[in-house]
Every structure is written in structure tokens, then in C-alpha cells.
Specification:
DNA/RNA_pol_sf, Reverse transcriptase, three-stranded antiparallel beta sheet, 4 helices, RNA-directed DNA polymerase, alpha+beta, single chain, RNA-directed DNA polymerase activity, transferase
Length: 123
């Protein structure tokens, strides 16, 4: 899964060679649980070898779905995060240009899921 260029900084990490960011989501997967464990073991060994420190609070292991950069990722594909939609639904109705821009910014985050979003959001 490609990471949107504007979100690269959210995936940034530091190692002895500098600061790097992912262009693709760093998933470890496999066709079976055992294969997945072997792949995970390989990744962990490489982290140790390169002195890469992981933030364990941000790591999720052996999950079948999760929220990644505001989207729900599962075997079904990429879906909207219902919690984010609830936040958008609770926004007060815009009463000025700043409010409209704010609403469109929130709603635009999910434009890929809204058919004809650009036509709906057109002034």
C-alpha cells in the first residue's frame, strides 16, 4: 500500500544512517501464520543489526485489521475509519468561508470513498 507523499513524515524513523520515511506501508505478512512469524523474525533481526529502535506502543502484531493513517485496513481492503466519520458528522454546520474550508478539509480526507466528491464540493 503506497503512503500518500503528504503523509511520509508520519512514518519517519531515525537510525544511525539518518532519518528515513516509508513510501509504502511496512507490513510483514505471509501465506500462513508460521511463514508470517518467520518473516517477522527476519525483520526484527534486521532492526537489531542496524540499531533501529521501534516504538512498541505503535507496533501491532498478528492482527487481521487495524487503523493505519486514518483508514481501516483489513482483508476486505481499505475502508473508512468510523471514528473519523463520527467526528465529521459532529462538526457544526459551517457559517463562514473558514468553516467551509475546515469541513471540506475533513470530508476531503475521504474523497476517494465519496463518488463525485469534487462535484459535490464545487462552489
Amino acid at each position: 500500500i503506497s503512503v500518500n507523499p503528504e503523509d511520509h513524515e508520519k512514518t519517519a524513523f531515525t537510525c544511525p544512517f539518518g532519518v528515513f520515511a516509508h513510501r509504502r506501508m511496512p507490513f510483514v505478512f505471509g501465506p500462513s501464520f508460521e511463514h508470517c512469524l518467520r518473516n517477522l523474525d527476519t525483520v526484527m533481526k534486521r532492526c537489531v543489526e542496524t540499531n533501529l529502535v521501534l516504538n512498541w506502543e505503535k507496533c501491532h502484531f498478528m492482527v487481521t485489521e487495524g487503523i493505519v493513517l486514518g483508514h481501516k485496513i483489513s482483508f476486505k481492503g481499505i475502508e473508512v475509519d468510523k471514528a473519523k466519520v463520527e467526528v465529521i458528522e459532529k462538526l457544526p454546520p459551517p457559517v463562514n468561508v473558514k468553516g467551509i474550508r475546515s469541513f471540506l478539509g475533513h470530508a476531503g480526507f475521504y474523497r476517494r470513498f465519496i463518488k463525485d466528491f469534487s462535484k459535490i464540493a464545487k462552489p
